[in-house]
User: What shape does this take?
Amino acid sequence: MIAPADVQPLLGNRHLAIQGARPSAALTGLIELLWSLPGYDSGQSVFDILPDSHFDLVFLLGEASCSALLSGPYTRKVSLPLEDSWELVCVRFRPGMFPRLADVKPSELVNGGVFLKRILGMDSDQLGERLKALSGIDSRKAFLEGLFHTAGLAEQMATARSRPCLAMIESCAGRITVSELARQNGMSVRTLERIFMEEVGVTAKMVIRYFRYRAALAGLRCGRAGTLADLALRCGYSDQSHFIKEFSFFAGASPGRL
Assistant: This one.
């Protein structure tokens, strides 16, 4: 079980009572996190989604019906009004990993999403009811991972042309240029960007920026970052001003306020 403090910074709403769990070893290359949020009888609240490079499968579990939303990635902050009575269960996929769950293009999900009637051969409402009947994030994780294993979702993702590029960006924590990324993967910048738009929905530059931000956030949270100028240099930013601007874009707040 992951403590809520480890989950909330990923989602932008730190005051929410979120429970999370890491995926099993077989799915760590595809899934970053599974989390759930209980429903409340307090009307409606605003759910903030900060810029990122993730796709999310979100189940909205209501009393009368259930639905499933496939969304992301986001290139700007989006605030969504949600009924507090809805219970949420989410599968957050690793940056750039587009799950082939529906006949939709990644670019169609940027800054939004689509509601899915069926997921891997199952009716979304019935799937939601199955999730509602399970208690705790661990049992829900086991159920959803079983579906993904049966469908061979991880094996499908292994064939994505963007996969080696994403792995390279992650391995260097975003300290790479688009031209260098293209060169090391034996393709032109134009081909690289076409592949990213087709398979990831956003540009390679956006993904690089996001991984660089994640490295900076990890540096701040470990408490050994030194000065902001030191952290900026270590994470590959041109200077402290550039670092603060980029960090504020992704975090919704300056590094000094976190």
Notes: The radius of gyration is 18 Å. The chain has a mean pLDDT of 87. The longest strand covers residues 31-37. The first helix runs from residue 4 to 11.
